[in-house]
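Need tokens for this chain, all 178 residues.
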Amino acid sequence: MNTKPLKLLFIFTCFILLQNCGGAKDDDCTKEAKITNYYYVNNQSYSYESTIEIPCDFPDPEPVEIDIPILDNFTYEIISFIYTKDTGNNTSRLQFEIKLINNNDFAVEGVPVITMKTPELEFSSNYYASKSPNNCYKLDANSSCTLSYDEEASLDLGVSNSIEIINVEYYLTKKISS
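Here are the structure tokens for all 178 residues:
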């Protein structure tokens, strides 16, 4: 009796069973998924990303709109602030230097947002960072960055008698692990 075909069939069956019964290891399968959270500041969107470990058969998370993540343990120091109502060139001029201080043990990426007040209105903007030579979009752990601004604006756009800085916050786009 020729048992060779039976041996081959037995080996093949064992191979198939081992492949299919190895599913217990698939239950332990995990993958890293990127979670994208986003928020809006003055009609501009920013995203804040983090990663989590999820089962391999789990769908990747959808982006989610969140409240603005503000950096805790953040301080600032106004080094200088000069507002010239009329420069004599049909312009007003705003100049300032603000030291942004990250008192945390981790680096961050984000956007400095300055709240200013005039007699007419109060407004917050990240516009100043984009116009600054050093935009401070990254703050290293336990460090500081100086945000400088010096721009003139046409008096045709209107003029305010005074402007003052009332607050500075740092909106997070990324926390960088050490």
